[in-house]
Task: structure prediction
Amino acid sequence: MDTHARKLVVIITEAILEKPLVEDVKRLGALGYTVYDVRGGGKRGERAGAWDADRNIEMKVIATEPVAEAISRHVLETYCANYSVTVFLADVAVLRPEKFP
Result:
């Protein structure tokens, strides 16, 4: 089976950023994304999602390394100073590379 190397960008942040993040990842070259409602805790406390201002999302984007790096850099520079944000990258192998430019 032929596989093709790509990067997975995972962004965990406050739900209020969902719409701007969707616009950002599209503008920066990603063709698609997946968003989940999530809960958890960390350095800044716990987010149980009991009310709208307490909700977190997890966004996943699969892209080429240059696109993944551009998205990660943009998120760090634009949102990290004012919002709770976790961003990480992972190597993944995809079967249909045309879906993830």
